[in-house]
From TrEMBL:
Name of protein: Alpha/beta hydrolase
Segments traversing the membrane: none
Organism annotation: Gilvimarinus gilvus
Annotated AB hydrolase-1 domain residues: 91-233
GO MF assignments: hydrolase activity
Similarity section: Belongs to the peptidase S33 family.
Amino acid sequence: MGNGLRTLRLLGAVLMAGTCAACFENKPEELGSNAVLTSCERSMDDPPPAVNGAQCGVISVPIDEARPEQGTIDVFVKRWPSISAISEPDPVFVIAGGPGQSATQVSDSLSQAFFNLRKKRDIVFVDQRGTGDSSPMHCDGGEEDTLAVLHKDTREETLNLLRQCADEHRNLAPFVTTPYAIADLERVRQALGYQHVNLWGASYGTRVVLEYVRRHPTVVRSAVVDGLAPVELALPFTMAASANRALQKISQQCRQSSECSERYGDPERNAQRVAAQLSQQPVTLDIANPLTAQPQTVVLDVEKFSSLIRMLMYDRLASKVLPHLLASAAEGDFALLGETVSQLMSSNIFAQLAMGMHFSVVCSEDARIANAPSPETFLTVDLSDLMLEACNFWHKGQLPEDYYQPVRSEVPTLLLSGERDPVTPPVWAEKVAEHLSNAIVLVAPGAHHGVTVQGCGSALVTQFIRDLLLTEEKLACVNDIQPLAPYLKAQIAQDEEALP
């Protein structure tokens, strides 16, 4: 994505399960020496947890099953025990996206989505090796920076940072691919004493879920995949095409609304106009640092602009402001863009993605796929260029011979997609479902990257995992997740007046 290490972080997506009653009553040693989970530690500075009674611990797994002398790695696990004293024996395992996102770090943001499931089932979050507290593979010299210093990036400087990162993680990188994640999940399941599990994965996590279903079909009771990212997605090659599709849909909605089109014109055309301008002359933005409130300068070029617009399209609510933002920028007013950059700087989305793990998966799996499509450009930028260059020197892992074959399964599976998803559009769910004999495919017309947390999404997931089916009412409710109306200037003014 563009020419900066921090720009590349915007690839990730969010944009993600415990003990049975009998297992919870057992002594820790009866579950195995690797399965001792205790109350999660918190510092005085940590915010209150979204769920009380969470349990945490590590389970040691071999780095390489074939070569035990390579040593072990600790996989970090967080569990929300079921609320009911009489719980179901099969938990929900939650798999995060990215690749490179920590499941335990995003757990609190999913507390409401899994609240009803937690009444009867444990929810288990597993930090995939290379993420979170499972030997995270971060890249020094850039990952803690923010959008404020993007202007310091050059292509060669970024590649040098990535070379350093590749060298730092050269020993572990070949062993953090999806197949190793599957082996780790199976060891976690066995260590916690579960005979069967339900799986929920988002974005890249859907790939992990599908591969687990392939390797361990008899232990999977149900699977929910939200925002399909199968290996065939070939991420570097399809990013721009998916982003173009999402921007076209947002622009089409505005053009079809007389009020939106009169105020903002054509958002896609405005975006192209701004991209052309920034290609010739980057813009300097003066903003207030969200942490210090001190003035700060941000230089915005076309690479950062394209990445910023693409990232905003991940989020359903953020996309509401895109027509206004693009129209203002096209008229030479970049104030709203500057405020948006400031908001992103104050978020923790950047620090949570382990870029070393991200590249290890993408370079070993996506970038090596045969017959990959030729990449498009998004707002004049080739989003795949730098990533593919980094993959030339990244240390890659080996994959099973059948890894690129479609996953065939009879496991009850719910496939969710957002019609406006800028990275995993519905076509991937349709392709995957062709080989699943017991699948339900649902597309939410107004959802972007992630359906579970939108509208009736969590109710859909709850009913499917509980009953292994969906009622007609639930099947229909996904159509109620409609595109949000664009913000209009009058609405924004009213919202600002209502602020305390």
